[in-house]
Amino acid sequence: MKKQIIKSEFTYCGYFSTLLLSLVFATQVNAQATLYNDGGTLHTDKSSILYIEGDLQNKNTSTLENDGVIELMGDLTNDNTAQIKNGSDGTSTERAYKFIGTGTQAIKGDFSNSSTRYIHNLIIDKATSATAVELQTATYVNGSLVFGSTTSGADTYTPTVYSSFTNNSGKGIIKTYSGSTDYELFVTNPSENAVMGYAPLMINGNQSNGFIENRGAQGVGLGGFSRNVSTTGVPYVFPVASATNGYNAAALTFTSLGATPDKVSNMFVDATGGVGFIRPSCVGCAGSPADNSGFNYYFSSNPCNSSTPQWIILDALPTDHGYWSFSGNAADQYVIETYPNSFPAFSGTGTDDWRMISRAGGISSVPTGDWNTEILGSVSGPTDLLTYNRNSPCYAGDGVPGGVFTGFSHFQMARSGSSNALPVELLYITAQPVDNQFIRVNWATSLEINNSGFKVMRSSNGVDFEQIGWVENKTGGNSTTETAYNFDDITAQPNVVYYYKLNQVDFDGANKDTKIVQASIKSESTLDITEFFPNPANESTSIIINANTAIKFNVELYNMTGQLLLQNEINTTNGSSRFNFSTDMLPQGNYRAVLKSDTQVFTRNLNIIK
């Protein structure tokens, strides 16, 4: 179609009279400066283009009816006495306001009435990449929001030769703020395809075009992007961004809706530092380990992975990133997904758990404090943690999932931190000579998570250690029951004191050293008695006696005032003997045990904590 410039009284910067004036453009009309509609009725027909090199202002009880395409190089203004709406031709798939300018363009005035003051199809296809259409008023779009003149698939917009006459390949963005004032962009059409042509979904994307940028201020509760939803089982995309953290798209797939249609509002919010914390907790642990970090949940059988045991660990939150805030019907149920590309500051490893977690609060609140309490409380049940986990076989997507959530709140990513994951919980480690021939290192765990195994380290001075062996886990890496291990140092020399420790290694390479123990081989008769373990103790504790002959011991337990509380007799055998003692009837406090043989007396201290 050849472009025509029709010069008439309305193509210049002039005013329409207050008389009713109906203008039907059946071709392309070029308004060379600002076009004012002042008290009249301006109508564009289907298959026509009104090209305006400046601004379009609809004022003073005017009516602007659009069944065609209005291309704008400048701003669009509609005051609160004027109407801007569709014409009567329901067969048109255009009805579009296209922003094609080079710099910042603005939407001003009043566009917040879905019957008389709205934009039907809003097309962003600017001449210059990374430039914005800036909202300076709340704006309703009751058709489709589309990035790119030739973008197909939108619910109410199908490109034609007229609507795609100008094609800038989808350049530009929308800003829902001007200065420090926030405004709402509301797509009232409830179709999942009412928003199309946005940039590929990602987290912290450095895209220049094809998204909705909000200001990112915490606690605003106003502005951002809203859309109606009405269909379950399909993703509704929120292609949102902030100037600080870039493009951070999210999608909600609803499993049930409390209202139809339901207005769901969203913004991405910047946050310097971190957003809250994850309080330590552990479901399925043997007790509550002191080194427990973050949220830990043990599944004895994972249906997503051949019914093998599985730990879910969420103990790391991103820093200097931000979070997603949503509002909507409290009865809605949905799955949320965000979409990572490259996120070095929160990259983790390929075996980490990755999941979206929620924190209750309105869109105008700031989600400080503990996020742990709602990791289970806001979802359908514990197995939800397996089903919606980025590295779970149950999840086939490429994003970071979370769900099934009920109601709306704040969301951020959480993962298992490689340096903070719940460690192997060591019950004890000992070293003792066996028959004066070699030294045996014994240890046991009460809890294992992602445990690859143990490096056995030895030193002759207690400072410089070298690896002398490797012991692989017996549990497959995960266990909540006591597991015993040992390693025989057959290279130990007589009359040398050796120091031993373990370096426990996770599957992802994280590692941690145990405490140091010592032992030596002697030519003469030997007798070694370990300290109590565990110590402090709760319900029970143990000691190991290493001897090269059978010995009888009288064991007496005293409190710190010297009162004799318990008395028992134990008998050792040649080698290593372990003795278990019940402490569940003893009150919390400090105690001293005295072990007497015919020739020697040993004392060991014990601390009991209830």
List keywords for this structure.
single chain; 610 residues; mainly beta; Immunoglobulin-like; 4 domains; 13-stranded mixed beta sheet; nine-stranded mixed beta sheet; 2 helices; 1% helix; disordered N terminus
Architecture overview:
By secondary structure, the protein is mostly beta strands. The protein folds into four domains: 1-128 and 144-171, no CATH class; 281-322 and 331-415, no CATH class; 423-524, Immunoglobulins (Immunoglobulin-like, Sandwich); 526-610, Macroglobulin (MG2) domain (Immunoglobulin-like), CATH 2.60.40. The protein is built from two helices and 49 strands. Strands 1, 4, 7, 10, 12, 14, 18, 19, 21, 26, 30, 32 and 34 form a 13-stranded mixed sheet that branches. It has a nine-stranded mixed sheet with strand order 2-5-8-11-13-15-20-23-24, with no helix packed on it. Strands 37, 38, 40, 41 and 42 form a five-stranded antiparallel sheet that branches. The longest helix has 5 residues, at 373-377. The radius of gyration is 36 Å and the shape is elongated.
Quick structural gist:
The chain is mainly β and 610 residues long. 1% of the residues lie in helices and 44% in strands.
Helical content, roughly? under 10%
Mean pLDDT across all amino acids: 86
The SS-based structural class is: mainly beta
How large is the share of residues in beta strands? 35-45%
**Please, how many domains?**
4
Sheet with most strands:
13 strands, mixed
Which stretches of 5+ consecutive residues score pLDDT under 50? 1-26, 287-291
Kindly state the number of beta strands: 49
Number of helices: 2
**What is the C-alpha radius of gyration, as a whole number of Å?**
36 Å
What is the distance, rounded to the nearest whole angstrom, between the alpha carbons of the first and last residues?
A: 87 Å
Shape: elongated
